[in-house]
Amino acid sequence: MKILGTAKFKEGTLPVKYLGVPLITTKLKATDCVPLIDRITKRVKNWTNRSLSYAGRSQLIQSILFSMQVHWSSLFILPKKVIKEIESILRAFLWSGSDPKTHSAKIAWDSVCAPKNEGGLGFKSLDIWNKAAIAKHIWYLFSGGEVSMWCQWVKSYLLKGNSFWKVRIPTDPSWVWRKLLSLRNWMSPLLTHKVGCGESIFLWYDNWHPLGPLWNKFGDRIMYDSCLNSETKVNQIIEGHSWKWPIPNSWEI
Q1: 145-173: buried (b, 16+ CB within 10 Å) or exposed (e) per residue?
Q2: Confidence tier at 98 by pLDDT (50, 70, 90)
Q3: Confidence of residue 207 (pLDDT cuts 50, 70, 90)
Q4: How far apart are CA 228 and CA 248, in angstroms?
Q5: Are 76 and 121 spatial neighbours (Cβ–Cβ below 8 Å)?
Q6: DSSP-derived secondary structure letter, 235
Q7: Where are the domains of the chain?
């Protein structure tokens, strides 16, 4: 209270907004995303009194309306209800323009989001885009991330030297961390490692070998037979340009 009195601040409660998005301590709810939906709806209403062709509305969706959710999608896994509501607004604006209730959709939205060379309009699927935008945080963990305070904090306090692919989900994880861990099976085949010195690549769990992650291929047996633990790095089994297995010929990969 002394600090509040000295600094002339008012004590607030969460959630509050920071850079346009809510600061929350729990799971993101659909009600937290109302400001985002309201912004998109308001922008659409500003255009509905104009005579726009399908091509004009399509361009506005891709260049303006879609970009309005990019910041949110880069920070949160949006609730499915919110994604459906945003796509409903975009769909209604595309097909009906000034009077969204007069016409139904001419083509399924999934078909509209298909690439142009497949007959669609090239719109991005909000669900896939959201996953891809969040997945960049996982990519930062493997691409260095020395300049990211978040990456350094995750490595020091959450991973603690363990592989991201096999670290256990804590009993009381934050909602964001739990969501990132839930994307591991989806992301693992998409991240490949080019071996240099190999000192930062996990031998069993990272996707560096042509067969993919070796643990996924062979299971715990390969670790038992090779006498190498789960924290072994690639540089520990390479000497010059040759393999250096502790037990020669135990495995040929």
Answers
A1: beeeeebeebbeebeeeebbbebeeeeee
A2: low
A3: very high
A4: 13
A5: no
A6: G
A7: 16-124, 134-191, 192-253
